[in-house]
Every structure is written in C-alpha cells, then in structure tokens.
Amino acid sequence: NTHLQKDSEVHSGGVDLFLAGVKRTIETGAVLGVHSWDDGDREGVDYPRDAPEHELNRAYVEAMLGHDEVYWFTLEAAPADDIHETSLAEIERFGLLTSPPQ
C-alpha cells in the first residue's frame, strides 16, 4: 500500500512508486508531480505513440492501473526539465487513488 500524507511531495519516478500500491491513498494537500521523460536525445512526447521507446513505461502504468491514459497525459503535462503538479480532478480522472482523499 502507498499513502501520502498532507505534506508529501512526490515527483517524477516517485509517482511510479506511488502507483505500485495495491491501495493508493492521499491526504488533502499531498502533491503528485509528473512530466515527460527524456532519453538524452529526445523527450517521450517527441516519439510517436507506437514507438518502442514508450513500451516499458506505458506497460508499467497499465499494469498498475489497468489502463495507460495517465502515461500519455504525463508526456504532455510538462517537459522533462519541469513538473506539472496534478490537480485533484486529474488524480480522480485517471484513477490514481483507490479511495477518496482523506
């Protein structure tokens, strides 16, 4: 299980770890920050959707959530050198929690 307290800030790969929880809960005020990945040459958003470069990350998200919509969202939410702090509406839209925020 993964739980974020109200003063938690989880960014980038930490969000991937958060998604690994069978039960995923947060307290109101916690921050989940996402962005595109970068392979040193290009950003994830620059590759076509069917490019093999997506498959490991995309498949991981799908295995954790049962869908990959949030993976595609993160690619466009912010460039690799920035962070997009997800809103509660986005967190709910993508089913990142298994119960409502506390």
Describe the structure.
With 102 residues, the chain is of the alpha/beta class. Helix content is 32%, strand content 15%. The protein contains four helices and five strands; from the N terminus they run E-E-H-E-E-H-H-E-H. It has helices at 13-19, 55-65, 69-77, 88-93; strands spanning 2-4, 9-11, 24-26, 31-34, 84-85. The strands form two sheets. Strands 2-4-5 form a three-stranded mixed sheet. It is globular, with a radius of gyration of 13 Å.
Beta strand count: 5
Instruction: Give me the Rg, rounded.
Output: 13 Å
Strand content: 5-15%
- Between the first and last Cα atoms, what is the distance in angstroms? 15 Å
Helical content class? 25-40%
Number of helices: 4
The low-confidence runs, each spanning 5 or more residues with pLDDT under 50, are none
**Global shape:** globular
Biggest pleated sheet: 3 strands, mixed
Order of helices and strands: EEHEEHHEH
Q: Biggest sheet, strands in spatial order?
A: 2-4-5
Mean pLDDT: 96
Structural class: alpha/beta
Summarize this entry quickly.
The chain is an alpha/beta fold and 102 residues long. Helices cover 32% and strands 15% of the residues.
Write the layout of secondary structure elements.
Layout: E1 2-4, E2 9-11, H1 13-19, E3 24-26, E4 31-34, H2 55-65, H3 69-77, E5 84-85, H4 88-93
Helix pairs in contact: 2-3
List keywords for this structure.
single chain, 102 residues, alpha/beta, three-stranded mixed beta sheet, two-stranded parallel sheet, 4 helices, 15% strand
